[in-house]
Amino acid sequence: MGGSVDFSKLANLVDGYVRLPGDPGFDAASRPFNKRYADVRPSAVLSVASADDVGKAIVWARGNDVPIVARGGGHSYAGNSVNTGLVLDLRGLDQVRVDRSSELVTVGGGTRMSTLYAGLEPYDLAFPAGNADDVAIGGLVLGGGVAAVSRSFGLTCDSLVETDVVLADGTTVTCNETSNADLFWACRGGGGGNFGVNTSFTFQARPVLASSTCLLLWHRKHAREVLACMQEIMDRAPDEFAARIGIARAADEEAVVSVVGWHLGPAEELREMLRPALAVAEPFRVDIADRTYWEAKDYLHHNTEGGAFAVRTRSTSKPLPDAGVATMIDAVDAWPGSGNADGAGVALFTWGGAINRVPVTETAFPHRDVLFLISMDTSWHVEDGPAVARANLDWLTALHERMGEFAADSAYVNFTDPDLGDWQSAYHGPNYARLAEVKRRYDPDRVFRFPQAI
Prior knowledge:
InterPro entries: BBE, FAD-bd_PCMH, FAD-bd_PCMH-like_sf, FAD-bd_PCMH_sub1, FAD-bd_PCMH_sub2, FAD-linked_Oxidoreductase, Oxid_FAD_bind_N, Oxy_OxRdtase_FAD_BS. It comes from Saccharothrix saharensis. This protein has helices spanning 7-13, 26-30, 51-63, 113-120, 137-142, 150-153, 181-187, 223-236, 267-280, 293-299, 322-333, 386-403, 423-428, 432-442; strands at 17-19, 44-47, 68-71, 86-89, 96-99, 104-108, 125-126, 160-166, 172-175, 197-204, 206-207, 211-219, 241-249, 256-263, 285-291, 308-316, 344-350, 372-380. By secondary structure, the chain is α+β, with helices and mostly antiparallel strands. Strand 8 (160-166) and strand 9 form a beta hairpin. Helix 8 (223-236) runs antiparallel to helix 9 and helix 11 runs antiparallel to helix 12 (386-403).
């Protein structure tokens, strides 16, 4: 892209607003959530007013040799929702329409979780969704979308029944089981940003269920027995209960073991399931309570200090052996530290249940045999300097390698890992070849591209 691109011509084509560096709102419309990529700045941002704007912008960008990328919530772990060309800010596409009779919910491609839940709650209808207010629906569902209720309700993409996609030639197609079925298949777990710009999604919702939640915290000295016990509990748990089991620490603090869970049932049942863990070691905090579905959603809301971070993932179909648990604990103890209060840690997200009852090739999401997603993360602040960042990334790389002795090489595409080697296999498994065929059909010139693009 040359320096002589005249973005005013784009502004004259669209109803939305074109922002250039220095314009009010430019940073908010383009700043990546992960400050690891804060120095990547686009040449312009188009805050679209409609799906038509998206098509016009794609055609204009191709004609002017300007790289283009769509941005919903900007939460790509690898900063893939910003580039040095044109960013399509989809936040204006955030309508939520609910058909009470069919329980179908249609949402704009830039709809964020706070807007989505606000639109669903009056109807007491839901489908699996995210737990951070400003995460947008597009990135979530296109990468599969694992929610806290997915063991019962399936993935976000398992509830998807239709989506509108603006293609590389600027035209819009509607995709479902019978129309553009191959692209619809790819949109259910093949990863965002690969095939076009999704401007609308329709989901099959369902009535919400009364719920209960738990938050349990233990001191570091109980880590081995608690982590082992909780894995056994979750291996036997009904689909209605999902939990995140973790060990983490911040700088100059002792590690803490945590269990955060959501049960689609009463607290009495939840406490009984957790009884072995409560007996093996006494937590220093116990919160097990009945909640409405919406209260449970709020309770599991993801809070973060922000800053820069990196995440690497593996998976396992069974509880980790004692040596695997010990590796997790030792690594957290050895974390090099940073100024970010989010610190670092390892978490086991309980998958399985309804997720695993869908055949591997029925959707593009391939991880249908997983009990735990193993998420290894670290964080720092840009102000910490390059030496701290390097130490954190080296620590994470070493941990990821060591955990390979106990867990599979598969990785969750929504926890995007820019340092992943064989990402084609790790993200997409046996579905990669078919995804590549869909890419060749719908985007033969690879208009939509990034370092790990299909």
